[in-house]
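Q: My labmate handed me this sequence with no annotations at all. I'd like to see what the chain might look like in three dimensions before we decide whether it's worth expressing. Could you predict it?
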Amino acid sequence: MNVSTGGRLRGRATVAALVCAIALIPGPSYAAPNDPGPRNDSSIERIRTELDGLYRQAEVATEAYDAANDRATKQTKRLASLQTELARAEGRVDDLHDLLGAAARTQYRGGFLASTGVQLLLGDHADQALNEASQTRQAMQGIANASEAQKSARAELGRRTDAAAKELRDLKRTRADKAGAKKEIEKKIAEAERIESGLEEKDTRKLAQLEKQRADASKSKWPGSGSGGGSGDGTKVSGAAGKAVGFAMAQIGKPYVWGAVGPSSYDCSGLTSAAWAAAGHPIPRTSQAQWQGLTRVSLASARPGDLIIYYDATHVGMYIGGGQVVHAPRPGRTITTAPAASMPILGVVRPGV
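A: Here is what I predict for the chain of 353 residues:
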């Protein structure tokens, strides 16, 4: 996931070089996981920053893949619906063609085509096409008109179906590209985890202390924190929002997994979308779609159940009150609570309205 201005990575080229950068930090900085050299607070902070950057990039890649997959899935369903509709249209055209032939043969023999029989074949089109006509000539004209209308409809459906099929092919290519990008980021994550696991115990404790210090500092950034109340006063909420919060809180301790939507694991937007679906109000799958598609509210008016959107809409957590969110942080971590202002906030959206 991208970070805000001031903490944002320096571009894709930087991402590819992050692990190398960790190994090449000069002087007293951290040089390598197993380097016995001295480490000060600055070098450990830099390690934490580099690792966080990798994880943010990983979430960006994950959300991009999830969005591409969601669009391809929806397009697949749309194409199937168009193909079914086209098949029906083709059947109606064939029926009308057969009926027109029968009417021509009847006229040739000098007979009449009963309007009741035509109605049975034309179904809903009988009233408009034949107007209860009983004479063969009138019947044939009505059938011919209906047949031409159906041919036009079939041709239009054919064009729409072809366009939908092409769009699906394009979406599948995009999804494949996003999947490839995600795999590259996964390699970086594996290296980040190797670096983190190679830290000495005292360094690991120092990293944990740094994270706690950041969390404590971020609490004061939440609206109303100075007065001990405001919108983040921890008041319980009922209704759909209460169900969504209850569902999300029940997932605490479950692991973050790429693209997961439960029940045993989740990614950030997988958790929020599953929670609101469980509350009876389905919402878009990805954090960017949630930001774009849900009702936006002010930060000061945030209430439990609202979604806090972070960075460039590449991370999301659910507000639970008291200035806290529940969220799926990143690979290697489990669903947990955190100060709502511990990450750069883009805005707040409210499902179910």
